């Protein structure tokens, strides 16, 4: 009996969860027994013993419990390493752990993948991120103690370094644009305003109060500052989906008129699109730069988020943990996922 456990979260809006698109054909066409479990409530050691594969899917609260999440998945990896049997994670554990914090983008940049220009505000950023003045380098760094850290100064430096009037700040461990803010500085008056989390803030005092509460220091809450990409509003953000390293489909996402976030939660829209060869090559270069990637079994699913900056494709994120795979956007994509899964893991059972 081929058995697969799918990890999810309780209380989700089922309109945005499309896991049945691959679960149904995996059961019906490929003969797998598939069960779903809330990752925070299940006995992971027991689950590892009775399943062949455990797949992380809609665990969409993991960022609130990041340490617990990684330690829970480590149980699966440790059990397999110690016994030589039991379940494997369909995206390899060390890849998931590496992908947890967005500082992984630094590794990809060092491998030659173009990322959005980034000012890293982390406790270790002074030693781990690029700060070269060369035009080929897109990252700078900042680190400081809690007592001396000034988020407003960091934002101002981002405005200057990126030669822009708009920057975005986001946590290094986050999902669904939680605590992501878009700050604008008026070039003539110097006044600042900000929007994020469904609210707008006008004036330096209001902006500073929110940012200081959210980002007290680079140590307590590592974060990143990037230029606001107007291309996302104008052309959209592109998401390319890969199953067992093979391209399945691509969508273009755009934010609502009043927002800068592309997620459906915030009234963003999306549509299927045909990716040009240049975009496919860029996305595949990013995928193949994942450290230690050996076979398609290491990476059952991946989402590559891309947008243009100064006319060139830049990587926004490489989503390897629990991305929405937008099965609803591409007819047949759930079947393609099930087929790729069965082809990859049938040989193991």
Average pLDDT confidence is 90
The overall strand count is 16
The amount of beta strand, in percent, is 25-35%
**Separation of the first and last Cα atoms:** 8 Å
Total number of helices:
11
Please give the radius of gyration in angstroms: 21 Å
Q: Walk across the major sheet and give the strand order.
A: 6-5-11-7-8-9-10
Major sheet size, sense and barrel closure: 7 strands, mixed
Regions with little confidence, pLDDT below 50 for 5+ residues: 126-137
Overall body shape: globular
The class by helix and strand makeup works out as alpha+beta
The share of residues in helices is 25-40%
Order of helices and strands: EHEHEHEHHEHEHEEEEHEHEEEHEEH
Could you explain how this protein is built, in words?
The strands form three sheets. Strands 6-5-11-7-8-9-10 form a seven-stranded mixed sheet. Helix 1 (20-28) crosses helix 11 (333-345) and helix 2 (44-50) packs parallel to helix 3 (66-83). Helices cover 30% and strands 26% of the residues. The chain contains eleven helices and 16 strands. By secondary structure, it is α+β, with helices and mostly antiparallel strands.
Summarize this entry quickly.
The chain has 349 residues and is of the alpha+beta class.
What key phrases describe this protein's structure?
5-stranded antiparallel beta sheet; 11 helices; 30% helix; single chain; 16 strands; 7-stranded mixed beta sheet; globular; alpha+beta; 349 residues
What layout of secondary structure does this protein have?
Elements: E1 2-8, H1 20-28, E2 32-38, H2 44-50, E3 53-56, H3 66-83, E4 88-89, H4 93-99, H5 104-110, E5 118-121, H6 125-128, E6 139-142, H7 151-161, E7 166-171, E8 181-185, E9 192-196, E10 199-202, H8 204-214, E11 223-227, H9 230-234, E12 237-243, E13 246-254, E14 269-273, H10 277-288, E15 301-309, E16 312-319, H11 333-345
Parallel strand pairs: 1-2, 1-3, 3-4, 5-6
Antiparallel strand pairs: 5-11, 7-8, 7-11, 8-9, 9-10, 12-13, 12-15, 13-14, 15-16
């Amino acid at each position: 009996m081929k058995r697969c456990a799918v990890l999810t979260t309780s209380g989700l809006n089922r309109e945005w969860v499309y896991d049945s698109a691959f679960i149904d054909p995996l059961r019906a066409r490929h003969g797998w027994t598939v069960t779903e479990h809330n990752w925070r409530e299940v006995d992971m050691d027991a689950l590892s013993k009775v399943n062949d594969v455990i797949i992380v899917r809609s665990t969409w609260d993991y960022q609130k419990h990041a340490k617990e999440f990684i330690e829970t998945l480590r149980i699966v990896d440790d059990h397999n390493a110690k016994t030589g049997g039991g379940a494997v994670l369909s995206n390899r554990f060390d890849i998931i752990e590496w992908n947890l914090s967005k500082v992984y983008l630094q590794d990809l940049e060092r491998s030659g993948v173009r990322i959005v220009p980034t000012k890293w505000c982390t406790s270790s950023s002074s030693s781990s991120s690029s700060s070269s003045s060369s035009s080929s380098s897109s990252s700078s760094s900042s680190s400081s103690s809690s007592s001396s850290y000034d988020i407003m100064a960091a934002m101002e430096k981002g405005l200057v370094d990126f030669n822009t009037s708009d920057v975005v700040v986001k946590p290094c461990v986050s999902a669904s644009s939680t605590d992501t803010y878009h700050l604008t500085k008026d070039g003539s008056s110097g006044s600042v305003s900000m929007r994020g989390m469904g609210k707008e803030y006008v004036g330096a005092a209001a902006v500073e109060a929110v940012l200081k509460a959210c980002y007290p220091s680079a140590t307590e809450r590592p974060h990143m500052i990037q230029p606001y990409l107007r291309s996302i509003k104008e052309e959209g953000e592109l998401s390319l989906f890969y199953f067992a390293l093979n391209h399945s489909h691509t969508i273009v996402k755009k934010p609502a008129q009043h927002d800068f976030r592309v997620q459906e939660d915030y009234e963003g829209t999306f549509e299927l699109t045909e990716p040009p060869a240049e975009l496919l090559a860029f996305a595949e270069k990013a995928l193949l730069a994942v450290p230690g990637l050996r076979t398609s079994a290491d990476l059952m699913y991946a989402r590559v988020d891309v947008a243009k900056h100064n006319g060139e494709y830049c990587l926004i994120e490489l989503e390897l943990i629990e991305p929405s795979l937008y099965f609803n956007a591409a007819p047949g994509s759930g079947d393609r996922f099930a087929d790729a899964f069965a082809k990859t893991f049938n040989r193991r059972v």
